[in-house]
Amino acid sequence: MRIKPEIRIMGIDDGWFSKGDDTVLLVGVVFRGGFWIDGMVSTYISVDGHDATDQIVKMVCSSRYGDVRILMLSGITFGGFNVVDIVRLYEETGIPVIVVVDRKPDPDAIASALTHVGGEEERMRLMHRAGPLHETENKVRFQACGIEVDTAREIVRKTSTHSHIPEPLRVSHIIASGITRGEASRR
What we know:
Oligomer: single chain
CATH architecture: 2-Layer Sandwich
Number of helices: 6
Number of domains: 1
CATH topology: archaeoglobus fulgidus dsm 4304 fold
Low-confidence stretches: none
CATH class: Alpha Beta
Strand order of the largest sheet: 3-2-1-4-7-9-8
Mean pLDDT: 90
Helix content: 25-40%
Structural class: alpha+beta
CATH superfamily: archaeoglobus fulgidus dsm 4304 superfamily
Distance between the termini: 30 Å
Shape: globular
Order of helices and strands: EEEHEEEHEHHEEHH
Strand content: 25-35%
Largest sheet: 7 strands, mixed
């Protein structure tokens, strides 16, 4: 697959939330490659809920950005432990999914935390369903669905123009945090 320099990518990240919040903002920033912002969409999901996949599907499918070629997620969970089913996300949108993971997951810590939110078996099933972690040359970890691993690796590399984090995710993080906290900083 040839990757155009201006491939349209929707980078998705959640905003800040505090204990006791029921919902959290989810922001999707549409980027052309790692260079230009074309637009933004948003929705809300339940904190520690089970609606992240449904809300992302609705957000993507109802947007006017029909030429998005990649969905890039900042992790597989949003709003605490609201786990995205990336296989279903790919199947329902027809758009390949790349999940960028900041830190190597600690399975014991995840299992322990899940006992406090309930539904741990289903949440763990979705996390395992996402497949193995892969790495780029500069140690950025990612998972991929609906796209070859080498192609996903190349997209992560090409869109990491200002840091090791791909630009669509870096900017979606800044926007979501800026809206929910009143200020934001770079990762």
